[in-house]
Structure formats: C-alpha cells, structure tokens
Amino acid sequence: MLRTPLGLGAAALTAAVLVLAVVAPMLWTDDANAVDTGNILAGASGEHWAGTDNLGRDILYRTLVATRLSVELAVAATAIAVLAGLVLGTAGFVLGRRSSRLVSATINIAVAFPGILLALFFAVIFGVGATGAVFAIGLAGAPVFGRLTQTLVAGVAARDFISAARIAGVGRLRILVRHVLPNIAEPLVVNATIGAGGALLSFAGLSFLGLGVQQPDYDWGRLLFDGVGSIYVNPAAALAPGAAVLLAGLAFNLLGESIAKALGVGVVGGIPALGPAPVSLAAEDAPVEPAGHDGTDLVLDVRDLEVTFPGARGPIRPVRGVSFGVRRGEAVGVVGESGSGKSLTALAVSRLVGEPGRVEASRLELLGHDLRARDSRAQRRLLGTSLTMVFQDPMTSFNPTRRMGGQLAEVARHHQGMDRRAALARAVDRLRAVRIGDPERRAHQYPHEFSGGMRQRAMIGMGLMGSPALIVADEPTTALDVTVQQQVLDLLATIRAADDVALVLISHDVTVVGEVCDRVLVMYAGRIVEDLPAADLAGSARHPYTRALVAAVPDMDTDLDQPLAVIPGRPVDPADVPPGCAYAARCPLATARCRAEDPPLESDGTGRRVACWHAGEPIAVEIADREEVEV
C-alpha cells in the first residue's frame, strides 16, 4: 500500500490527523480557551489566522484542539456500529435459521432507510448531546455492517472446515469465534476504516444541527455551526473547521480504500454519512430391510431417508427413500452421476443439512444412537468422535488462518478433555499415523503449506483424533494425481483393516469403488436403484443404469477405433422428477409400465437389491457400424 502515491499520501494524512488529536490539546488548550473581549468576531489576521469567535477566542486554535474530541467521537460511533453489526450479522449463524430470517428482515428494513433519517431517529431517542449522538451515529451504521457481516459469514459457513468443526461437535459460538471471524476480519477492518470517515462527517452534521456536542465542549461540527453565523463578517470562521472535517474524512476514506486495494478486499458503504415453510412428505417406497442387517455389528442403519427443500413449485426431494446399512469393518461405495444425491445422503447422515433443508427417516442410527433426536452434547460427542467426514476439496477442509496442529488438537481438547500440550502431542501422533513426514514441524504450519495429498491425509488424521467407527469419504481423491489418489485409498484401507472401521466411499469412479469396497450402492435421481456386491459390479450388474455407468469407463481393452460409450440424455432435475421410473427416458429397455410405475427396491434373496421392471434383461447397443451387440 505504501508503495503507491495514493496509499502513501493517505497514510501520511491519517497519521497527521491522529498525531494532531494527541498533541493539540496538550499544546494549545489554553490558547484556544483564552477570552479576549476586546477582539470579538475579528477577521483573519497575522495574530489570529482564522479570526476570533463571539468571545474573542482564536478559531484556529479551537479547530486544532477540537481534533481530539471529533476523532474520539467518530471512533466510538464506528466501534458501536461494528459491534452492533457483528451481532446482527452473526445472529443467524449462532441462533439458527428461523432467527436468521427475523434478523435479515430487520437489517433489510433498516438498510432501506436513508442514514440521516436513522441518525435523527436515534438522536431523538437518546437525547441531545455527545453521548446520544455517538449512539445515534453508531446504530445508524449498524445495518450496513450487519449486511456485510451476514454476507461474509454466509460465505465462510459454506466451507468444509466449518462442516468438519460441526462434525467434531464444536458449538456454534466457538466456531464463530475460532473459525469464522478470523476469516472475515480483513474486509471488516477495511470497511470500519472507511466507516470512521463517514462517522466523522455524520457527527459533524449532527453537531452542526445542534443535536451533537453542546457548549462548553466543542467539536468541528459545533465550530462550524458557530462560524456560519458570522460567515459574512469572517468567512474563515466556517472555513477552518469545514476544512478540518474534509481533510480528516478524506484521510480515513482514502486509507481504507488503499488498504482494500492492497489486500484485494471489496468494500461497501460504511457508516452512512448524513447526506413457504418446509413441507413434510412421507416416503413413497415401502420400508426395506438394509442388506446385511443382522442386528449385532451394524454401525450405520438408515431407513427411508429423505431430504426435502422448499421450492417455487413445491417441495424438492433430492434424496427419496434411501435405505441401507453399514456393518463394522465393511466398505460400502456409493456411485452415480452428479446430482444423484450421493453427497447429500452423506451430509444428512452426518447431520450437516441445514435449514431450510429437512431430513426425515423412519430410522437413522449410528452405533445404535438415534440421530433424529434433538441436538445435544452427547450427540455432538458421538458425531465428533465416532464419525469421520473426509470432504471432497482438501483446500477448504481446514481453516486457512490456523495452524494444522491446533486444528487437529481442538478435537481432543473439546471431546477428550486434554490440555493444550497433550492435545498437540496427540495431533502430532495422528499426523504421523497418516504418513505425513516430519509431523512435529508440519503441525506448526498452515494449510497452504501442505500439498493437496497431505491436506487430505491430514483431514483423515483429524478424524482419527477420536476413535471413529465410521468414515464417510466424499470424493476423497478429487483433484489429486493418480499416485496420490492411490496413497489416500491405501491409507483408508489400512485404517479400516487395523481398527475394523466401517467406510462409506462416495465416488464417480466406479472402478475405484469396485476395487476398494465390499458392496456398492448405485444412486439415480435421489434413490438407490441397485445394491450389489462390488465383485459383481463389472460383470453381473442387473440395472440398466449400473451397466451403463460401468460401460462408460474405458479400460485397457477398449477399442480406440470406436466411439466411447456414453449414457444418452441428461440426469433428472430433482425439482421435476417424472412419474414412473426416473431413468425411463434414458433407458433402452423402458416400456409403458416403466413410465407409469416406479419400481420398488426389492431384494432377490441373495443380498442384492434392484429397482427395475426389467432387471437383468440384455440390452442391445447400436455401435458405429450399425451392428447390434448384447451387453
């Protein structure tokens, strides 16, 4: 910032104002208060550069001395605006969706009013004087900071490291203080600096109107009010305090703009200068006994899971009647195209679907504990220690403003009651367990100093701070090169084998799922359409969609002279699911019955489930030379 002429000039001007606010009262208070009845309302002269007031006091000295009170009041009003704005902007994050709607409506209404009206309104409530004006200007600026904070918080709250903290059972207030506020501090500081300039102008305006500082105290606005009365006799009496307001306001605004430009932070207006509820739906499919359920070693038991969001034309259900179970030590893969409901199913199981989404199920249990119950300390502890969520993007899995060791240690401190040193030692040990070299040094580094594969392994290490019984990995190898992908998958397999941990692996890569998992769930349009052993995925799949997914993956035997296999058409829009089988429009086996009746997910008695009226029937595929083959 200081390398640019504008930034250097703004910094110098702001520093001059602040220095003057400190030294001026110490040097010139006596001269400013000296009464000379023989020299009343004198014009500018060599003795009095800006003339005198109606008591013969030197206007220039009074303008210089008034710097302290003017700046102090502007800073106080800015502090009130920022604090009130933080409360308003973070209320929705801390209190929940319903409270957020009320706060948002309040902010929107307040922002719609001009700043001068709000300031005058609050000035009447708090009364005439400096104190009342401080609160009036501060509260008038709060809605703008509240809107800014609300927007910034919403952006950070969507990051994966916030979801990780929630899974770890960290309370909302602690997440706000430790994870959210540090990541929005820069734009808030920048806008507060600019807001101080606006507050300075606003305060001068209220004092000029007689609602601010009262005699015998004086600030620039009060001096400007007094000077206007003699402007035709001595124009300098109004010019001096007016120039001071202009220069100081300009200094704060230019400084904020320069900092914003240097940091690449957007700014909004600071303190203004004077101038349908979710609808519950029952499951359409009949309850299905999850495959492999024996009642003894079931880690995760999901029955009739539905996720509903409100939409313009009625409720949208991106997850519809999903039922499955995961046993201890078992690896279950979930595959399907984008938008099929894979990740949303994982978020629902982890209790990470926020308002306005609604999660419903006839059964949703982790280690026998009902996850449908109201949020409690015991449930947060269960999710924080027994369930590990590995997110898709490792870059957003950690708070960029905190060191890696501290982020891992937070889990142990929060759930296991360890002190800071013991928790950090545990974090170093977990980094070593996930094969991160030199873990002592790495624990003191920031996320950007880790490679993508290291961040993904560190994310797994965070989950191992407790004793997880279930790992939910949502596309854990996305954006990683092939070698690092294999390292991450090998690490998950090692953890699973060593501690008998259950694994739910969500992926687009059916080949990886077939190699890593014991069982595969194929999802389409929010439903499980096939549940089969991973060994049967490549050659014995019965649903046309499953076979199309497998055929679309090239291998070493793929004929390079022929076009690659594709699935015709586009996935179904969750807001417009057609009647009957959702895959019918893209299925070569579809009949009139498929378009009219939705097939239930039924077991064939061998541990496999499939939802298709034509399961297992051969499909004739037309290739480039117009020859038909069966697959």
Topology, please?
Elements: H1 5-33, H2 59-95, H3 97-112, H4 115-126, H5 130-157, H6 160-167, H7 172-208, H8 220-228, H9 236-263, E1 298-309, E2 316-327, E3 331-335, H10 342-349, E4 358-360, E5 363-366, E6 369-370, H11 377-386, E7 387-390, H12 404-415, H13 420-433, H14 439-442, H15 452-463, E8 470-474, H16 482-499, E9 502-506, H17 510-516, E10 519-524, E11 527-533, H18 544-551, H19 592-596, E12 602-603, E13 609-610, E14 620-622, E15 628-630
Parallel strand pairs: 3-9, 3-10, 7-8, 8-9
Antiparallel strand pairs: 1-2, 1-4, 1-5, 5-6, 10-11, 11-13, 12-13, 14-15
Helix pairs in contact: 1-2, 1-9, 2-3, 2-5, 2-7, 2-9, 3-5, 4-5, 5-7, 6-7, 7-8, 7-9, 8-9, 12-13, 12-15, 13-15, 15-16
The appropriate CATH architecture of the largest domain is Orthogonal Bundle
Discrete helix count: 19
- CATH H level, superfamily name of the largest domain: MetI-like
Find the count of extended strands (DSSP E, 2+ residues).
15
Please tell me the total number of domains.
2
Which parts are unreliable, with pLDDT below 50 for 5 consecutive residues or more? 270-295, 621-631
Strand coverage percent: 5-15%
Radius of gyration: 33 Å
Q: First CA to last CA: what distance? A: 66 Å
Largest sheet: 8 strands, mixed
Order of strands across the widest beta sheet? 7-8-9-3-10-11-13-12
Provide the residue-averaged pLDDT.
83
Overall 3D form: elongated
CATH third-tier fold name of the largest domain: MetI-like fold
CATH class descriptor name of the largest domain = Mainly Alpha
Helix percent band: 40-55%
The SS-based structural class is: alpha/beta
